[in-house]
Amino acid sequence: MSRNNTTEVTSDYTCVRFYVSTISFSVLLFFNLIINWAIVREERLRRHARFVLIFHLLVSALVHLGMSSVFYYQIHLDTRLSRSACMAMITILISSASNILLTLTAMALDRFCAVCHPMRYSSVCNKGHWPWLLGVFTWMVALVIPLSLLFKDSDAPDRGECGREQLKKGELQKVLFIGLCTLIILYSYVRILVEGRRLGVLNRRNRAGCRTIALHGSQLAVYLLPNFVNFVLSILYKREFIQRETKELSAVVVFAFFSLAQCVAPVVYGLRKEELLEQLSRRFPCCSRYLKSVLGWTVLSWWFDPPFPELTTSRNTSKSDVFLLTLIG
C-alpha cells in the first residue's frame, strides 16, 4: 500500500491514547496527593533536595498526563479550537515533558554530588530554598522549546485544528534536548558506578546495591526510551521501511506501555526513601498498609526493617554502607 493511499488510522488510536492518559493521570493524582502532601507538611523533607525534586517530578508528570488526556479527548471529538487555545495546550504538553527530563537530570546530578562529593554536598545542598528555586528554573528552561516553535510558526494559517501534527513539530530540537539530558544522566551514573566499584559496593554478593542501581536505571528508561523509539519509527516511516498502520500501531503501544510505567516510576522512586515512608506511615496509615502489599517487591526489605541495622547500632559505618544509603537517598 502506498503512502498516498493509506487510510487514516489515528482516530481509533487517539481514543486509546485518551483512555491510557486518563487512567495514568488518575493513578498519579492519588500518589501526588499523599506523597507531595507528606513532603510539604514535613519541614525535614521539604528542606532536602532529593524530596523537593521528587515533588517536582510528580507534579510535572501529573500536568503532562492530565493535559495529554484533554489533548487526545478534543482530537477524538474533532473539536475546533482557537489558535491561542491550541498554542497554550501544546506549550503545556511540551514544557511539562521537557521539565520531567530536566528534573530527572537534576536528580541524577544530585545523587552524583551526594555520592562523589559528600562533604561539600552536605554543607551546601540541603540549606535554604534553592531546591524550590531549581524547580522554577527548570520550568523556565522547559518553556524555551515550545515557545521557540510557536514563535517560528506564528505566521501559519489558523485552520482550527489542534492535532498530533502540531505536537510533532521541532523533532530535531527535541531529540537534541533529550540526547543532551541523557548524556548528563549517563555521565552522572557512570561516575556513581565507578565510585561504587572503587568502594567495593557493586559486586555480585551485594544484591541490594545491584538491585538499587537496576531500579534507578529502569525508572530512567521508562522516560527516555519512548522518545528514541518514536524517533526511530518516524525515520523508518519516512524512508518507507514500514507502513503508516505499522508506525501508528507501534507508536500507540509504546505510548500505552510507557505512560502506565511513567505514572508508577516516580512513586516507586519516592517510596524508596526511608524518611518519606516514615511520614506516609504516620500521616496515611490506611494507605501505607495497601502500599506495602502493592509495591512490596521494591520496598519490602526497606519498609519493615531499617535498610542497614548495623548503622543504628554501631558507629563504625563502612564507606560501602554510606554509599548505598546515599544513592537510595
From TrEMBL:
Positions of the G-protein coupled receptors family 1 profile domain: 31-269
Keyword Protease set for record: no
Cellular compartment(s): Membrane
Major location category of this protein: membrane
Keywords of the record: Membrane, Transmembrane, Transmembrane helix
Gene Ontology cellular-component terms listed: membrane
Pfam families on file: 7tm_1 (PF00001)
Bilayer-spanning residue ranges: 18-39, 51-75, 87-109, 130-151, 175-194, 215-237, 249-271
Key word Chaperone present: no
Gene Ontology molecular function: any one: G protein-coupled receptor activity
Cross-referenced SUPFAM superfamilies: Family A G protein-coupled receptor-like (SSF81321)
Protein name in UniProt: G-protein coupled receptors family 1 profile domain-containing protein
Organism listed in the record: Neolamprologus brichardi
